[in-house]
Specification:
Strand order of the largest sheet: 6-7-8-3-9-10-12-11
Number of domains: 1
Helix content: 25-40%
Radius of gyration: 21 Å
CATH superfamily: P-loop containing nucleotide triphosphate hydrolases
Number of helices: 10
Shape: globular
Distance between the termini: 32 Å
Number of strands: 12
Oligomer: single chain
Length: 317
């Protein structure tokens, strides 16, 4: 369904009266099979949302290629971009900001249909009503405004709008982070059911590792614009191989007060994407860094016997 090859997304900025470049995504390669779900995890600023936005052409790509069902997204013309809008949609993190406060729900959900199809009038209202029913909302919501809905209801409206053109790929950018825990559970159950019924492909971006483990078949761990580990979700969570993946999982709060604390703690702060460290991007915080190697040479991605890919010198040999 989706292939990303050596993707780079850089943003020019001014820092201390000088021009600089933020390397938000710096050489990412990923692939997602049809009907599969890939989770993208990592610290804030690692480039997860930038990848999701680049797939939808919401961010300009600096280098590399993105192919959706074999069609290049980066080099798409107007006709190809219209096809992209039909085949891929995004659900943003904040449902309140994603909806126009001056539009009733009917108009918000109908907007993709108005722009890309000839459906109008009674048929348009029927299609919107059907979409709301799919996400568990009744027709009484058609003429309500976003401020009259709860957070969970607004997110369901955003999902209904994303499904309007019957896409095959959904980019879900932290779709439950702004919701209460009970509402999160409802939305996650709905997303799993929706994927089974419509054979959707998910790129699920989240900070919540438990959500990724519940929803996704495969997981990719990002650090400073690069994928440092990728593999089957249960493999990554039960036996992480990259040092960053280990400390990321160790940082999850313990559910019981009596449990002993784990000792693996990441040191320091994330380096600036403007001044990237030489060699391995994680060597400045890694307890297993090898002097003269990790700080000098960038590790290539290594394919392991269990099907995982790890970007680390510990496995390069």
């Amino acid at each position: 369904m989706l292939e990303i090859e050596d993707l780079k997304v850089h943003f020019p900025i001014r820092e201390k009266w000088q021009k600089a470049t933020v390397k938000a995504v710096n050489g990412v390669s990923l692939s997602i099979a049809t009907g599969d779900s890939l989770g993208l995890v990592g610290e804030s600023g690692s480039g997860k949302s930038t990848i999701g936005r680049a797939i939808l052409r919401l961010n300009k790509v600096t280098g590399g290629d993105i192919r959706l069902k074999g069609m290049s997204v980066v080099n798409a013309g107007r006709t190809e971009e219209e096809m992209l809008r039909r085949q891929a949609q995004i659900v943003f993190q904040d449902p309140h900001s994603a909806l126009n406060p001056r539009m009733p729900i009917l108009r918000s959900v109908a907007e993709p249909l108005v722009l890309h199809t000839k459906v109008r009038g009674v048929e348009l209202r029927r299609r919107v009503t059907d979409l709301l029913e799919i996400v568990g909302l009744q027709s009484q919501f058609l003429y309500r405004y976003p401020h009259e809905l709860s957070g969970g209801q607004k997110q369901r409206v955003c999902i209904a709008r994303a499904l309007a053109l019957q896409p095959e790929l959904l980019v879900l950018d932290e779709p439950t982070s702004a919701l209460d825990v009970s509402v999160q559970a409802q939305i996650l159950e709905f997303l799993k059911k929706l994927q089974r019924e419509q054979n959707l492909t998910y790129l699920f971006i989240s900070h919540n590792l438990a959500v990724i483990r519940y929803i996704c078949n495969r997981t990719a761990v990002m650090y400073l614009g690069q994928i440092v580990e990728e593999g089957a979700t249960e493999q990554v969570f039960s036996a992480p191989r990259h040092p960053y993946t280990k400390v990321l999982l160790e940082a999850v709060p313990l559910p019981e007060a009596g449990q002993s604390r784990r000792t693996d703690v990441v040191i320091g702060d994330v380096p600036s994407p403007v001044n990237m460290p030489t060699g391995c991007s994680f060597h400045t915080r890694c307890a297993e860094a090898m002097a003269g190697r990790c700080d000098k040479v960038a590790p290539p991605p290594v394919a392991l016997a269990d099907g995982r890919r790890v970007r680390c010198h510990l496995f390069a040999d």
